[in-house]
Amino acid sequence: MGLLIYIDGKFVDEKQAKISVFDHGLLYGDGIFEGLRTYSGKVFRLGQHIQRLYKSAKAIFLEIPISKDKMAEVIKATVRKNKLKDSYIRVVVTRGKGDLGLDPRKCSNPTVIVIASKIELYPEEYYRNGLSVVTIATRRNLIESLNPAVKSLNYLNNILGKIEATNAGAMEGLFLNNEGYVTECSGENIFIISGNFLCTPPISAGALDGITRDAVIQIGKTVGLDVSEKLLTRYDLYNADECFLTGTAAEIVPVTLIDGRTIGNGKSGILTCKIRKEFHNLVLKEGTPI
Ligand code: PMP
């Protein structure tokens, strides 16, 4: 028996969990998704993830066929049925099966999929020594086109960024927006620390409204840092004392090299370590039991 997957109202073995080749999620990347985590049997910020999923759906005129409460139940049940305590959960809602044209009116039933599996993190050494990041030539999607706040199934912009970073020998790619301001990395939000200031670009610069980002803003204030969301340039990043990325899968991961400039002393900074520790306390303290 493999994993039990929730698909179209039923739990089935992963071998039977299939979608149509006419599903517009596949044909056009027409759909949305969420990535969540459970820690010791509790879902971190379940309500916030569900909120973001339904906001993404609204932005692309997609009617999720189940209520938010039902979605929460399905997510918890998927983790329970797979007997997982620490897991990574993927929720996918596609436009559903249509024809080969792109008209979404031909897709009557959105496909809802929930997968709960083991987590994949960066190897431990990256949490000590940090990641190398390079600025990539591909710009972040314009907010006036496909707004990066929508967690859409069309991740080609992000994937191109990841490929460019890999080709340049770096672990992550830094996206600038069309005006040259820092937005985020291909799969994580970005923060810098300079003195007592903790800064991250505003969502309106072209970033996902990250749930880990939100938790870190809260933690930053609790530990007495002066937190702000402001436009950042690469110059601000190069001259920061510390830099780190945030995301559900990666959690809080330090950055110690940006475009060949060493950040701080080339190891995870003191405040980054402190915020990471507080984050681990928070995920164990908070959370919705499965
Ligand atoms: N930005 C992008 C582009 C992402 O895909 C993600 C999620 N992997 C994040 C930021 C981080 O968001 P969250 O903390 O909600 O996982």
Automatic annotation (TrEMBL):
Record has Iron as a keyword: no
Xref: InterPro entries: Aminotrans_IV, Aminotrans_IV_CS, Aminotransferase-like, B_amino_transI, BCAT-like_C, BCAT-like_N, Class-IV_PLP-Dep_Aminotrnsfr
Role played: Acts on leucine, isoleucine and valine.
Keywords on record: Amino-acid biosynthesis, Aminotransferase, Branched-chain amino acid biosynthesis, Pyridoxal phosphate, Transferase
Protein name: Branched-chain-amino-acid aminotransferase
Catalytic activity: L-valine + 2-oxoglutarate = 3-methyl-2-oxobutanoate + L-glutamate; L-leucine + 2-oxoglutarate = 4-methyl-2-oxopentanoate + L-glutamate; L-isoleucine + 2-oxoglutarate = (S)-3-methyl-2-oxopentanoate + L-glutamate
Keyword Transcription: no
Entry's family note: Belongs to the class-IV pyridoxal-phosphate-dependent aminotransferase family.
Cofactor(s) demanded: pyridoxal 5'-phosphate
GO biological process: isoleucine biosynthetic process; L-leucine biosynthetic process; L-valine biosynthetic process
EC main group: transferase
